[in-house]
Amino acid sequence: MPLSINTKGTAAKIVSEKILHKRYVTVWNRTTQFDDGRVIDWDIVGHDTSYPTFVIVFIFNTTTKTTTLIKEYAQGSNEIKYTCPAGAYDRKKHKSILEAARHEMSEEAHLKDGEWINLLPEGYTEDGISELKWSKNRFIPFLCLNPVKDDSPMERDAEECIEIVENVSIESLKQSITRAEMMLTAVQTTWMALEYLKSHDFY
What span, in angstroms and rounded, lies between the C-alpha atoms of 33 and 105? Predict the structure, then answer.
């Protein structure tokens, strides 16, 4: 029986789920059952919050045809990689998913305002896009057009190690992806943003 694409988190029956470890991230033992009867135990990793888990923002200046990226320390791989401003959607801090995106762009790229576009495909689950095969996290990708400098940016988290990279051309952006220098959620968001920009004749 051919497999059908499923982006709603309902591809297999979840029989049970138990937390094995919880600190900044949570590890669950999840038991699932496939349609053919197989029952499998998995290690699932993520944040123990409601969906969507986090936001990510692709920035574009329609006059210069450039983006602003950040270089950020990735603790899992112990690397410095390119990415887009991103962070958790905290219901205690943020009134909406858009406010979370605005806060992250201010904190990490020191930019504010602009025109905002939610890049989720029409009819896609509002829970967001799955982060990784073995991750429970989901994210909302945003495009922000023509933000301006934030002279009073929001404070970054103490553990963040970030450098802002301005005026990145589309060609340089694509080269960074081809050289495997960009985090995967940023690659997904970048692709969706570039397709939007191209379809609207922005570049």
Answer: 40
